[in-house]
Amino acid sequence: MSGQTDIAYNNYDIIFRNMTAQFKEKVLDFYGIHTAPIVRVEAVDLPTIAVNDRRMDFLFLLADDTYLHLEFQTTFDEKDLDRFLQYDVSAYERYKKPIKTVVIYGSNVEKVLEQKKLWLRSI
Length: 123
Hints:
This protein has one domain: Trna Endonuclease, Chain: A, domain 1, CATH 3.40.1350. The protein is 31% helix and 24% strand. The chain is built from three helices and six strands, in the order ααβββββαβ. The protein has helices at 11-22, 24-31, 78-95, and strands spanning 38-41, 45-47, 53-55, 58-62, 67-73, 99-105. The chain is globular and about 45 Å long. It comes from Anoxybacillus ayderensis. This is PD-(D/E)XK nuclease superfamily protein.
């Protein structure tokens, strides 16, 4: 045995998820996210018809009867934003309330999209 310790590839996600769950009353202030107070942490397992599970990092019900979807990322890829949008659609289908998504990036991420526009059109 070489004494080497295996570290999960998503070790930062694991740390941030645990810290956020433990300190949910103070975590939004720490991250500079200004919303209504958190009422509770919601389940984030969103099963899909494709027989796989999608799991967002956090979904908080806020005191103003809206939801905050919080994600932690150590890299930026626009495909991740598409995935987060899918999470939000699934959560909206379940809860039928407005959802705001905030992504917190690691310090090594220098350039990201601040918004992704979604164009809906009625036919």
